[in-house]
Amino acid sequence: ELISSIKKEVLKQSIKERVYEANNIATRIYNENKDTKSKEEIIKMIKDAIVDIRFNDGRGYIFIYSFDYECILLPINRANEGKSFYNFQDSNGFYLGREIVKSLQGKDEAFLTWRFPKPDNLTQKDFKKIGFNVHFKPYDWFIGSGEYVVDFEENMKKEINIKNLLLESLD
Questions:
Q1: At CA 50, angle to CA 67 and CA 158, rounded to 5?
Q2: For residue range 87-112, what is the model confidence (pLDDT) as tens digits?
Q3: Residues 132, 19: contact at Cβ < 8 Å?
């Protein structure tokens, strides 16, 4: 139980750091251009700067949505940008967009857990995912990311195995 709790905290910290990085990029672009460029130009600049960011062995990405449920940036499915996600549900019927917005009411950031199918395993629709979102105030967006718990645990096991092999080779 302690190990599971530690893994969960490491995962949450990892996601949080990535979202903070993306938020810092967006904030910098906004602050440097708000007096000289249009809102549309700044939005394009922010999206262009963030769209190709990948982490966690290529699984992780940054998404952006507005508080009125519009998809601003979804790197894994650009066709959804500009569409509403008000009625979007996870595999348990959890209204993900509504719950993210609710989790951020009165706060600047929040973690949330939901269940979702994995791109590499669409037959099993119930993988736990932990996400983190931060309020980007200039445009009333939230910037976020999430990670499948099972994938993160697999990565940790691989890292531990590699470290053990290295330590053994030193003996």
A1: 105
A2: 998 878 889 899 999 999 999 999 99
A3: yes
